[in-house]
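In this supplementary section we document a worked example of the pipeline. Step one takes a protein sequence of length 928 as its only input; no multiple sequence alignment statistics are reported here. Step two produces a three-dimensional model, which step three serialises into structure tokens for compact storage. The input and output of this example are shown verbatim.
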Amino acid sequence: MLLAGVNFKPVRIIFVLCYNVQAVNKFFTKISLVFAGALFVFSGLFFITPAQIQAANLLEVPKIISRAEWGADEALKTWASEYPTDNQGLSINQADYIVIHHTASSQLTPDNDSSGRYTGMVKAIYRWHATNATWDDYENGTVQGFGDIGYHYLVDPNGNIYQGRAGANGVIGAHVYGHNQETIGIALLGTYGAQLGAGYVAHEITPAAQGALARLVGWLAAANGINLDAKILIDGKTQYPLVGHRDVRPTKCPGDNLWAKIPALRQQAAQDAQAYQNYLYQQSDSPEVFLLRDGLRRNYDNLQTAQQFVTNANIVNAAPFLTALFAQRAFLKYPDGTLLQAKNQPSIYLLENGQKRALAVTAEQFTQLGFVWADVVSIDPLDIALYSDGLPVKFAPANKLISDSHGRVYQTQNGRKRWVVSQALFNYLGYQWSQVAKDAAAENYLPGEVLKYKDSVLLKGQGPAVYLIEGGQKRLVTSLQLFSHLGLSWKNLIEISDQELAFYNDGPDLRYRSGTLIRQQGQSQVYLLDDVVKKPFLSAGLFLANGYNWKNILNISAAEMEQYQTGGYVGYPSGTLLRAQGGQRVFVVKAGGLEWIESAQKFLAAGYRWNQIKIIPDSEFALFYPGIAPSDLPVAPVENNTSALGELIRIGVTKIDTGQEVRITANGAFAQYDAVGNLVKNYTASQVAIIMAQSGAYAKLQAVSDDVILEALSYEDRPAWNQNLNYNRFRSTLEIKYSDYSQSFWLINQLPLEYYVAGIGEALNADHPQYQRAFAIMTRSYAEFHRQNGGKRPGEIFDLNNTSSDQVFKGYVFETIAPNLVAAAQATAGLVMKYNDQVARAVYSSDSGGTTASACSVWGGEFCGEAYGYLKGNVQDPAGTEHNQSKVAASHGVGVSCVGARRLAELNYGHEDILKYYYSGIALEKIY
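The serialised model returned by step three reads:
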């Protein structure tokens, strides 16, 4: 009731929503206040200001000074923001661990105002990183400038936090070589225990800086789902996910003093991360709230919606800049058929018609249903709750005939139900209605493939087309002639509905059998069928020589003819005697090739008769037997791909500009061939072959013997230390060919693997012999690995190029100036490294800096698999190894550290011991 004599007026109460949301809501449902003569009417909730938030006893969200606020000159930013991607090509915005740095600044200079900020220093670091700092790119060598600041965040002595690298959470940084993906780099301005120039610098780690750093780490850990109390594998070592730069790379960063504080920082940050765990964020001008989870921002229309998914939440005000730091996570709706499981929960669901169906089956039944555990997608419980529930999935009883509530009949197999589509099929399968039982759980069973007619049955729908069932597919019988040719019978034909026919996938149209002679109606060309290939006869003589009869030719339609691709030609059968019209030599056909009968005596001794010789046109001879000379003129030998020198390897020597003239000569006889292997021309010593790189051009220049060395007169590769040298002489074969992969002509050297190893110019003639042998095995293994796997760049026309991105190959000239390296290659001929019985990908670097890196950490992807267990890194160079910092900066550091290997040779290690020192678990094997 109202109090007499008292004036009442409605008053709006504003509650600060900064504690447990559920408790506040409960409070609203119960309270009714009368205080100081005023009736308080709850006419609505209002949002709170940042100042009010700080008044609450919640841990403050770190205040981050944006790039715009500290004045980043975005014109300096030349590196477009990039994000790691998963195997589906989707961006990964979640970080796995955090790396602490110091900026190694000699002086700490605050801004010349009362702000207490250090924006001048941040700008200077940004400019240096963006334009001057150098880094090593695996494919492109040393690159100047990161194109942006390398760190994600910077902290100054007063505890101010600055946004560093542009982009949302998860953007790839440039703060630790080999560890820039899925990490966060935070740098403290200053030097905290490290040698700078001639002195040791140790700035004070202020309480403000340390506190801000701990809060920032804790907040980022909570937002990215990083458990700071759980160790993970980093760079081959089990470590907490807060590390110093020196924990993953050989460096003094972040200084002795700051590095020593990391354990305490981690403990404080872990406590802070727990506090930040269930923060909901809301901007003061919007009812929308969002949650930071797994590196992304989850948006909810209002607080009530968010409460359905987030319990025990604390709501705080969010600065507008915060939404730019975290990309919005769109709800990823998985397609039907996907298996989903909420993280850390046992239930597995199958998506069907947009609903989730719980699998009420055992592990064994899961497999029997055809599911694979590896296909189960683990997602956030918040996401799985967004799918409505469908009927649970049950495992059907074995081999029963059942019907559902709609009257459909099924046979159960392997836990699924298989629909019997029609009464005719029911009868064909020999079923009886007395066998059918109604099953109330039929809707819970998953459908299997519909039951079908067996192979060899002929089916016909409502149209004229007739199909033969093979392998569960329907194959069209294209003509009555084909029907008869295949021996099909009309008594096996069953007519069914088009609906039932549609359950059979289309297989390839039925074809005539291999060995059939065909000719298109109205045409004269005759072909011999070899599976899907039709081979033409070039002449009637060829047709008759193969023993065929004209009456056996089938005339088929143009549509049927199009089913077969043209390939090759029908050649002469074994035993045929041949002579080219313009040649003198007589050959006998053997296994598709030719054998020259060297004399009349041998001809007669073999029982041949002169009237058996078939004289064929020169063009036909060259077509069937390219590279074989029909007369007694000299000809280059046919290349042999296998020998004691190893398989042939193809090396991209240099790109050739379109329109460029390529000139090749040699110190002895060589020959030119076209793209199909036809001999174009023979050359004598010093003659010059000239090839123009233009559309359709191709040429292969091949030495007639191993002592003939080809020389590319139009190619120059002169070392700076001796301009009189030109690495333009090559063994075996030079090829001019256009590459669709790289859209350019190339000069390619094809040569045996051993000659390639002898011509690699990355070791010294003066190196220790055991190092030289280890180097030969290493480079041979690297080359053989890529040769066996289709080349380093699948689709390219060569296996490797001759640059430092692959291996620096200098050819025959290098052999002449490095005889000791040639001897090392010969002494180890055929020896390769193997790991798990596979040739090892023997990557190596000039100088690891003291400790080799993990291939997984540097390159990721396939290098993280078990097949690369020999490249786990963390191998220390031997004592006494001298390092060159310029080489360290330009090296990836994976595999053998060449400076360390040289030191091992000095310490009397053998070549095998050197290799096993750096490559764990490898074995040497001679493969030829």
